UniProtKB/TrEMBL annotation:
The chain crosses the membrane at residues 138-155, 199-217. It comes from Rodentolepis nana (Dwarf tapeworm). The keyword Membrane applies. Gene3D superfamilies: 3.30.1360.180, Alkaline Phosphatase, subunit A. This is Ectonucleotide pyrophosphatase/phosphodiesterase family member 6. Keywords: Membrane, Transmembrane, Transmembrane helix. The lineage of its organism: Eukaryota, Metazoa, Spiralia, Lophotrochozoa, Platyhelminthes. Pfam families: Phosphodiest (PF01663).
Length: 219
């Protein structure tokens, strides 16, 4: 999270009035997804108008869906708006002059994930966790791989989680062969075992998670 000030805003509404487009849950003060109205202006027209916020005012980037940088891992989904606006860190996108930000907003997420303020943190301790002290970097997607290592369950779904990045976090590190096979499953390079054994394994995994949650709630 980064610190913000309600007066430090990009006036999107001056370039593209809110009644000319739709926006959904794919936005925050730091980002805005712009969808054309059913009988409204085209994507190209909306883009040209809101692009002026970037070129004339600055402190934001405006992209058509296909132009979104690959580093965001964001453009290959039907739920992504045809136009996406991303504010510069510390700035917020004001889309409606009659609905300004209030003093209750002092911090915000949603900026470029290369900014250190956007990086997650994790505090982990337990009988299966190796005592490492502070680590330089932790990727949020790797929580999945870490939990599976702790449960000694080595048949992941196809995910972005990288088991190699968190293997040293656990006291009992699997063999390199196990880790490589885990990685192949996660990348979809090898099929998982047949459905019957997977159902049995997944049932066990779910039961363990439910028991762990119940224990936490009681204590």
């Amino acid at each position: 999270m980064t610190t913000v000030n309600i007066s430090v805003v990009v006036p999107i509404h001056k370039y593209l009035p809110p009644e000319e487009y739709m926006s959904g849950v794919d936005g925050s003060p730091a980002t805005l997804g712009i969808w054309p109205l059913p009988k409204g202006k085209s994507v190209d027209v909306l883009y040209e108008k809101v692009k002026k916020a970037e070129t004339e005012f600055g402190h934001c980037k405006v992209y058509k869906k296909e132009e979104i940088p690959d580093e965001y891992h964001y453009k290959n989904n039907d739920r992504v708006a045809p136009i996406v606006v991303i504010a510069e860190k510390g700035w917020m996108l004001l889309t409606n002059e009659s609905n300004p930000f209030t003093g209750s907003i002092v911090g915000n997420h949603g900026y470029n994930n290369s900014n250190a303020d956007m990086h997650p943190f994790i505090i982990a301790a337990g009988p299966g966790i190796r005592k490492l002290g502070r680590v330089d970097r932790f990727y949020q997607v790797d929580v999945y791989a870490l939990v599976l290592l702790l449960l000694k369950y080595y048949m992941p779904a196809v995910v972005d989680s990288d088991v190699m990045r968190v293997a040293t976090f656990v006291k009992t590190i699997p063999s390199m062969d196990v880790l490589k096979q885990f990685d192949r499953y996660a990348k979809g390079l090898d099929p998982l075992p047949d459905a019957s054994s997977m159902l049995e394994a997944n049932t066990f995994f779910i039961l363990v998670l439910l028991l762990a949650i119940q224990f936490i709630l009681r204590h």
